[in-house]
């Protein structure tokens, strides 16, 4: 299976419309890949909080349309990263009055929407994404030819229980778009390898390059196999990281070293 992770450079001065066209062209250039992955919030930048509301769009908005067309033109499965999604309010009033979500879109090679995932763990503690966006509530997997993909986003990487849930739902390949800051790059690499080892799954983690609202990005998109071995890693700048991997290795690893079978769930709380 061939995967291409497009580590997009997000810089001030490039409009969202211009970047959207440029990224669509980059996706089309990956014809021949099986899976293409884009980063988190590449339209705005993951730390450009003031742009979330201004650039938010409905699920089937301009980014949806551009990426659906690009996936179809290239004939690839496309994880189109995430967008700031604007929803309608619960009262049924016009779109634009409901909460925002950090929403990932996955398209089939025919350009159909295969899945949408609203990020569960929002970064920022008491500011930024954590207060500007709602939290998703559902785990999402997508069945591709040869593997089942579990979908997560950036800060989710720090929460191993989410990935256990994805594995229990059948995930064999974990795809994680991100806008990860350079100052915590060592955590990015460490956590990507940890999620691969503990879940005996492939990890495809795609970050951004450039600077988001003054926050330098880590880059260094990475592909890790079920034993924790790094198959490929990008540098700091915009690039396309392409790697061949064998989805069958997940089953072989889990059979040869069946650690997942030894999980003990529902343990009693300690006595006080």
From TrEMBL:
<comment type="similarity">
    <text>Belongs to the carbon-nitrogen hydrolase superfamily. NIT1/NIT2 family.</text>
</comment>
<dbReference type="InterPro" id="IPR001110">
    <property type="entry name" value="UPF0012_CS"/>
</dbReference>
<dbReference type="InterPro" id="IPR003010">
    <property type="entry name" value="C-N_Hydrolase"/>
</dbReference>
<dbReference type="GO" id="GO:0016787">
    <property type="term" value="F:hydrolase activity"/>
</dbReference>
<keyword id="KW-0378">Hydrolase</keyword>
<protein>
    <submittedName>
        <fullName>Carbon-nitrogen family hydrolase</fullName>
    </submittedName>
</protein>
<feature type="domain" description="CN hydrolase">
    <location>
        <begin position="1"/>
        <end position="247"/>
    </location>
</feature>
<dbReference type="InterPro" id="IPR036526">
    <property type="entry name" value="C-N_Hydrolase_sf"/>
</dbReference>
<dbReference type="Pfam" id="PF00795">
    <property type="entry name" value="CN_hydrolase"/>
</dbReference>
């Amino acid at each position: 299976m061939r995967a291409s992770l497009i580590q997009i450079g997000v810089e001030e001065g490039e409009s969202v419309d211009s970047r959207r066209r440029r990224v669509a062209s980059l996706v089309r250039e990956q014809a021949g890949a099986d899976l293409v992955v884009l980063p988190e919030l590449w339209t705005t930048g993951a730390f450009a909080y003031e742009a979330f509301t201004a650039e938010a769009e409905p699920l089937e908005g301009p980014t949806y349309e551009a990426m659906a067309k690009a996936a179809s033109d290239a004939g690839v499965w496309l994880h189109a990263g995430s967008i700031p999604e604007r929803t309608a309010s619960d009262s049924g009033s016009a779109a634009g009055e409901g909460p925002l979500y950090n929403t990932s879109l996955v398209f089939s090679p025919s350009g159909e929407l295969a899945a949408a995932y609203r990020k569960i763990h929002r970064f920022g503690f008491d500011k930024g994404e954590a207060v500007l966006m709602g939290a998703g509530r559902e785990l999402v997997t997508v069945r591709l030819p040869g593997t089942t993909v579990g979908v997560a986003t950036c800060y989710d990487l720090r929460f191993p229980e989410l990935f256990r849930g994805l594995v229990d739902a059948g995930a064999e390949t974990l795809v994680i778009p991100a806008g990860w800051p350079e100052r915590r790059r060592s955590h990015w690499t460490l956590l990507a390898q940890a999620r691969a080892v503990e879940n005996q799954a492939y990890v495809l983690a795609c970050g951004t390059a450039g600077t988001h609202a003054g926050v330098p990005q880590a880059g260094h998109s990475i592909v890790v196999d079920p034993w924790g071995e790094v198959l490929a890693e990008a540098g700091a700048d915009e690039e396309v990281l392409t790697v061949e991997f064998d989805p069958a290795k997940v089953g072989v690893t889990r059979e040869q070293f069946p650690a997942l079978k030894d999980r003990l769930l529902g343990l009693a709380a300690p006595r006080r």
